[in-house]
Amino acid sequence: MTTRTPWRPAALLTGLVLLTAACGGGTTRSDVAQQQSSAPAGAASSAAADPNAPIKQGLKVAFLPKQVNNPYFTIANQGGISAAAEYGGEGKEVGPSDASASSQVSYINTLTQQKQDAIVISANDPNAVVPALKQAMAAGIKVVSYDSDTAADGRQIFVNQASAEDLGRTEVQLLAEQIGHKGKIAVLSATPNATNQNAWIEFMKDELTKPEFKDMELVKVAYGNDDDQKSFTETQGLLRSYPDLAGIISPTTVGIAAAARYLSDSPYKGKVKLTGLGTPNQLRKFVKDGTIDAFELWNPADLGYLASYAAAALASGQITGAEGERFKAGRLGEYTVGAKGEVLLGKPTVFDKDNIDDFDF
Amino acid sequence: MPAEHTGAVGSRWPVRAAYRWEGLILALLAGVALWASLGVDGFANGSNVSFLLLDTTEIALMVLTMTLVIVAAEIDLSVASTLGLSCAVLGQLWNAGLPIEAIMPICLLVGAVCGAFNGLLVTGLGLPSLAVTIGTYALFRGLAYVLLGDQAVADLPPAYTGLATASLGPIPLASLLVVVLAGVAAVVLHATGLGRSIFALGSNVEAAFFAGVRVKRIKFWLFVASGTMASLASLVYTFRYASARADNGMGLELAVVAAVLLGGVSIFGGRGSLPGVLMAVLLLGVVRNALILADVANEVLNFVTGLLLVASVLAPNLGAVRRRRTTPSVEGKSVS
Q1: Does residue A195 belong to the interface with chain B, where contact is any CB pair within 8 Å?
Q2: Where are the transmembrane segments (chain B) (predicted)?
Q3: What pTM does this model have?
């Protein structure tokens, strides 16, 4: 490459690009948006639901988590597999060891090949799995998403672990009990634009307007960016600015763990109450040493259990995924399919020193 | 052109060994396929074959140029990051409203520039490609995240996403692309003066240089080809999964290098063949597909693939090690 110009092909390519761009032809983002908006909105499923159909025996239900060997999903899928055993089906867990966006696709294809009756999936990428799931559904396989939804056309039912409203309101109620419905409180959130957290915080603020919480005042929403160090120093800053703070709600597992670590080594331990969303394994130590009285999260075993029953109900023709259909989910009772095929697990589970040892995730 | 020179550099032994190795891979491939057809439910049918081929598309594309690079005694570990960067560029430009037909050549250009950057550092500054491409492995992936962050661009045109998953009978269209390009790469490597030069500079760079092979120029263009191929793979990847993300193809570079080595290409350069590599890609794909179908746990899967790879690096080099003991002055030191 001493004398010849290696740039000629590059120049040619650039020219081609500019030419195509200049021609103005081609498919742009707005074209696709137009096509999609003009397309008929979601063909309704043709088969009618028969709520009285018995659950078929020997249903094969596969659980495809974001990642195998992840304690949270192991518990959820054990819940689902035990549910399958209850209704006479056969459950199994398969999945990739890395939570990358596309690794699930080859597993979906495999499950389609194996002619499973249903796939229960927590999507690593809501869109990347859709083409494969559509093929699975075309082959007659029912698809339930849980924990992390896919795009709506990739599944029939989404089992939602907790609604934003329930999480937001119950966290305020939980803290109110601990501080006697009185005092200044703060929120330690994730990032300022975290969709989930912001939705929850809105419901917290709304809950605080109720008369029983009139003596509680939300003084600050701090952001730890879901970074351990930042969350730690933000907690420190909160207590420096408001030494008379009564309690902190941290609706993120990173934030609550960092705040607990700060509080447990500070004079505020036990005096400033901390609650929020966390996992038992992460917070066990702080519950036992009195830093945290109680925190909450959905029970992953119940989540898997419900998703498993939803899959069985779909595969047996009891439901099709349309709004208003009802099905029974073993010990959890009866559930109704909501808008957009969503089924809501219910109120989150509260963990305290009495029950925390029953959970390992 | 010192066309016949290669024969002299790599004595008869490795040539015969290469054939034997390919024969072994072919036998292994046939054996595993036969076992899976008989013993694994759902393996031997059109749609599974189609899934299997589709799943290996990106790797099959990237091994084509990687084989040339490794035969030339270099390596490019930045291919998967180039793929990621190209996906991020695609996503960002698509968001900006450019037509997809203009974005695709831009992506290829991005890949070519990434490859040229590697090539310049390796040939211009004489740095070892292992170090350079470990650096650009992080650099390109980092750039991808800077561009697209953690967002996923998914509203891609259905005409193209459909094309990426479409198949003619059990043969995916994407595999036809692989076949065509594999033909080109095989001809270049095995039937042209350029190919002979690549073998020559891979087995002994100094001898090749003195014999008139334009070592730097060839190496530079090999890196450009590798980068461009990575972005071509990124287009297939993005449309196949209908999702452009900065973390697309994370870790694929290892699968690519692994397949090349399993295919019998010497990591020291100068030896190997494209048919062998393509069979190795198929072998890895078939093993993976069959074991997943047989509900083998993921850890075991990784273990089996790992075992195959260790064996593949070990077996052909046993001979090389033996040879090195008997003749002290050997190749393998060829760091340009």
Answers
A1: no
A2: 21-39, 59-90, 102-121, 127-148, 160-188, 220-239, 251-269, 276-294, 300-319
A3: 0.78
